[in-house]
UniProtKB/TrEMBL annotation:
ABC transporter domain segment(s): 4-236
Family matches, as InterPro entries: AAA+_ATPase (IPR003593), ABC_transporter-like_ATP-bd (IPR003439), ABC_transporter-like_CS (IPR017871), BCAA_Transport_ATP-bd_LivF (IPR052156), P-loop_NTPase (IPR027417)
GO function terms (MF aspect): ATP binding; ATP hydrolysis activity; branched-chain amino acid transmembrane transporter activity
Similarity-based family: Belongs to the ABC transporter superfamily.
Name the UniProt record assigns to this protein: ABC transporter ATP-binding protein
Gene Ontology biological process terms in this record: L-amino acid transport
C-alpha cells in the first residue's frame, strides 16, 4: 500500500485550473520526484497534499487514511511535512527558535532536545550560531535549517519544493547527499526539483506534470532516456519521439 495516494486530484484558483485529475502514489521508503515547467502545478500538488489548498475534486490518502478534508496541523501530526520553496525561515528569530517551530506539536520535549543535538551534529554551521538570528545564514545554510525544522516534526513523508533553488553547486551537492542519506534511513520523500538530472538520479519513481496533468510517470532511468524529457528538461537534442510512455 502506498504511503501517500492521490487520486484524480483537481485544484483551481478561481477560474484557473492548476491541477486536472492528477493521480500518483508515493511508496513507503522511496523517493518520488515531480518534474515539469514553471506553472505545471508542482507546488500546488505539494500544498494540496499538506492541506494548504483545498481540492475541487479527488482524494488524498496518507498511511491508509483519507485526509482530503483534514486541516494542515493534523496532517503534520500524522507525519506529513513540507520544506517550501524559498525555505520560509523566520530570519529575525534565532536558528534554535526556527528549529523549535518544527516541534511545536510535540509534547516530548526531552526527545526534541536530543533530536536537535543530532541536527547540530549533522550541521555544525548551525550549531555554532544557534543563538544568532537566522539572517546570518547563507542560502544553503538556510535550506539546511529548513530541513532540520521539518525533521523535528518527525515526518513519515518529507516533501521538498525546489530545494536546490538559488544554491551554489557545492551546496546542491551536499543537499542531494543529505536527501539520499535521509532516504537510506527509511524516510519517504516527495521531491519537486528544477535540476532534472539530479532529481532523476536520486528518485525511485518520477512523475512529469504539464499544465496540471500527469503526462508521463515511471522508472527515472527509463524517463531519462525519453527524447521528449531530454529535450524539454535535460537540455539535450532529441530524435523524433517514439510512442508516448503512458502514465501509470
Amino acid at each position: 500500500m502506498a504511503l501517500l495516494d492521490i487520486e484524480n486530484l483537481a485544484v483551481s484558483y478561481g477560474p484557473v485550473a492548476a491541477l486536472r485529475g492528477v493521480t500518483l502514489a508515493v511508496e513507503e521508503g522511496r523517493i518520488t520526484t515531480i518534474l515539469g515547467a514553471n506553472g505545471a502545478g508542482k507546488s500546488t500538488l505539494l500544498r494540496a497534499a499538506l492541506g494548504a489548498v483545498a481540492p475541487r475534486a479527488g482524494t488524498i490518502r496518507f498511511a491508509g487514511a483519507d485526509v482530503t478534508r483534514l486541516p494542515v496541523h493534523k496532517r503534520v501530526a500524522a507525519g506529513l511535512s513540507l520544506v517550501p520553496e524559498g525555505r520560509r525561515i523566520l530570519i529575525t528569530m534565532t536558528i534554535e527558535e526556527n528549529l523549535l517551530l518544527g516541534a511545536h506539536l510535540r509534547p516530548d520535549q526531552g526527545a526534541v532536545r536530543a533530536e536537535m543535538a543530532a541536527i547540530y551534529d549533522r550541521f555544525p554551521n548551525l550549531a555554532s550560531r544557534r543563538h544568532m538570528a537566522a539572517a546570518c545564514l547563507s542560502g544553503g545554510e538556510q535550506q539546511m535549517l529548513a530541513i532540520g525544522r521539518a525533521m523535528l516534526a518527525r515526518p513519515r513523508l518529507l516533501m521538498l519544493d525546489e530545494p536546490s533553488l538559488g544554491l551554489s553547486p557545492l551546496f546542491v551537492e551536499r543537499l542531494f547527499g543529505l536527501i539520499a542519506e535521509l532516504n537510506r534511513g527509511g524516510l519517504s520523500m516527495l521531491l519537486v526539483e528544477q535540476n532534472t538530472g539530479l532529481a532523476l538520479g536520486v528518485a525511485h519513481h518520477a512523475v512529469v506534470l504539464e499544465l496540471g496533468r500527469v503526462v508521463m510517470q515511471g522508472d527515472p532511468a527509463v524517463l531519462a532516456r525519453d527524447p521528449r524529457l531530454q529535450e524539454a528538461y535535460l537540455g539535450e537534442s532529441a530524435e523524433p519521439a517514439p510512442q508516448p510512455i503512458p502514465a501509470a
